[in-house]
Design brief:
30 strands, nine-stranded mixed β-sheet, 593 residues, alpha/beta
Length: 593
């Protein structure tokens, strides 16, 4: 959506003022609805008069009848358009146009998009494409400058590198709304030069610096915020939520970790009022979940189900969010504001009957009024610079009789561990209870031979899963119980030009092709959702998940080296807290005497 200061037009303002006085008719009059007032928390009967993209008047029911077009809102609730304060379009594995078609009819009129997935694969060209892809859309995108390309410099290699000068150049563009989530937490806390330059660029531009403060507390949290980072979505408990609110961070409470939402809602309900710094976001939504449940509307629906008052949930998703992104024209149904308006059938299911964006009807009864416009995706193709792999590429060579290995213990909140393994035919035999993980650089900037490590606490794998959706450098990552299945899954993904595959007994059980960047499909959402659901179901057959941490979603973050503890990358086993990097999991070898 291109909005070149359109509300500053003097003629438009004069027309709106005249219509508010009653001297001119409205372009559109919305009559008979119940307005949810985000400023006062009231539910009140009101009619709304629009002139072009502006709200001209919010007045008593029946007070005016003069309008070129009248919308009957009897029995409906009127809300500002929903604002998703932190998300990645690529996480839904579809294009921005397809995402608009899925979420704008549900009332989500604004997205704050961190395209760091595209940036990690394509560099600045990926960000350029993201901006271009949003221009013809009715859904508003606030595109951010990715700060984590890569997320842990020195511990992994992505397809590009964004130092401070690159970030400064991106921030100079009017389309860029700030710095996207700063993930290299230790670099911020320790004031390392590269990260210091990135943060300085954000402060100099006067644009917000979004954060990623997973498990930070005490002095580390204070240092992170003192550096200029002003938000966080990495909430791990209700207590963590309150601690970060008290530290002055804007919280982007995310729907992608549903098991945490009940205790977060309980913590919020224990406060005397809803913090003005509480917003809502999706972060990552898988395509099958998006197709079935929706985007930010689903987060609103769930927090209400878990006990948050509907008015509070909507305030977080509208007015609070608008303040966070510095958009005084959004988030409130009042004169002089932008006419982003959703007509909801109720405040339980939050089904949108009608959606207006900048005073124009863009969706009705769950569908767009005009098709979303795609742009050429050619710049995102051919991103897999990786030859086919053999079984031995997924084995750890060793000369000796046995070896002491470094293990990556536990999913999500990882720890270092050790185990002793035997050696047969020149290769390490995986210790009982371990899972193999291999990461191969796929961007053509380094050696593409897989780095192989060992996971513990990941259950017993009866096959393998390969994926190029692997946060945040998005190298080819393969999990498995044996080298044969790992090679089969990996080669299926390589041949597809990127995506996800599950294999067992040497055969591919399911494949999702993601030919754009190895992250996105240009197929319709329904088709992508079906293929992804098939991959998820196939994965369920080869490993037994143990929620809340050992879940299917965990495979996509297992390489996130900026987080605390060890993680496998294309360079070896990396620890984002200590900076430790082991090129091989072998710590020591014993040879026959």
């Amino acid at each position: 959506m291109n909005e070149p200061r359109d509300l500053d037009d003097r003629t438009l303002r004069s027309r709106a003022v005249a219509a508010a006085r009653g001297d001119n008719a409205f372009d559109i009059l919305i009559r008979g609805g119940t307005l949810i007032d985000m400023a006062t928390g009231e539910r009140r009967a009101a009619d709304i008069g629009l002139v072009g993209p502006l709200i001209s008047s919010v007045h008593a029911p029946g007070e005016r009848q003069d309008a070129a077009e009248t919308i009957d809102a009897c029995g409906l609730f009127l809300s500002p358009g929903l604002i998703d304060t932190h998300m990645h379009v690529e996480s839904s594995m579809i294009t921005p146009a397809a995402y608009e078609a899925a979420t704008l009819p549900r009332g989500v009129t604004t997205l704050v998009w961190d395209p760091h997935e595209l940036g990690n694969v394509h560099g600045v060209g990926g960000v350029d494409w993201a901006i271009a892809a949003t221009r013809p859309l009715a859904q508003r995108h606030v595109v951010l400058a990715p700060s984590c390309v890569p997320s842990a410099p020195g511990l992994e290699l992505a397809g590009a590198d964004f130092p401070g000068e690159t970030i400064a150049a991106l921030l100079a563009r009017p389309e860029i709304g700030g710095i996207a989530e700063v993930m290299d937490m230790r670099a911020v806390i320790e004031d390392r030069p590269r990260m210091s330059a990135i943060l300085a660029a954000g402060r100099a531009a006067g644009k917000p610096i979004h954060g990623h403060a997973r498990s930070l507390a005490g002095g580390d949290l204070q240092a992170f915020v003192a550096a200029g980072v002003s938000s966080d979505h990495e909430i791990v408990s209700g207590a963590d939520l309150l601690q970060k609110l008290r530290a002055g961070l804007t919280i982007e409470l995310r729907g992608s970790h549903d098991h945490l939402l009940p205790e977060c809602v309980a913590a919020l309900n224990g406060l005397p009022q809803l913090p003005q710094t509480l917003t809502l976001c999706t972060d990552d939504v898988f395509p099958d979940d998006l197709f079935v449940a929706g985007g930010l509307d689903d987060v609103v629906r769930r927090v209400v189900r878990y006990g948050l008052a509907p008015e509070r949930a909507l305030q977080a998703a509208t007015l609070n969010a608008a303040r966070r992104i510095g958009r005084d024209d959004l988030g409130l149904l009042a004169p002089g504001r932008r006419a982003d308006i959703v007509l909801f059938g109720d405040l339980v299911d939050f089904r949108a009957n009608l959606v207006l964006a900048s005073g124009r009807i863009v969706a009705r009864d769950g569908a767009l009024t005009e098709p979303a416009r795609e742009i050429d995706a050619a710049p995102l193709r051919a991103s897999m610079h990786l030859a086919p792999l053999g079984e031995n590429d997924f084995r750890v060579p060793c000369e000796g009789t046995d070896a002491t290995l470094a293990l990556i213990a536990k999913p999500r909140f990882t720890e270092w561990a050790e185990a002793v393994a035997t050696v047969e035919h020149g290769f390490v035999v995986p210790p009982e209870g371990t899972t193999l993980i291999a990461v191969a650089h796929r961007h053509g900037r380094a050696d593409s031979r897989p780095r192989v490590g060992f996971l513990s606490g990941w259950g017993h794998w009866r096959g393998a899963l390969a994926t190029t959706v692997s946060h945040d450098s998005h190298n080819l990552t393969v999990f498995g119980g044996n080298a044969r299945d790992m090679a089969a899954a990996a080669n299926a993904v390589i041949a597809a030009g990127g995506g996800m595959a599950v294999a067992a007994e040497g055969k591919v059980l399911a494949l999702l092709e993601l030919r754009l960047s190895g992250l996105v499909s240009d197929a319709p959402l329904e088709e992508v959702a079906g293929a992804f659901a098939a991959v998820r179901a196939a994965a369920d057959r080869i490993v037994d998940w143990q929620p809340p941490y050992l879940v299917f979603k965990a495979v996509f973050g297992a390489t996130l080296a900026c987080n605390a503890g060890p993680h496998q990358t294309d360079l070896g086993i990396a620890d984002g807290t200590t900076g430790r990097l082991l090129e091989s999991p072998i710590l020591s070898v014993r040879t026959a005497s």
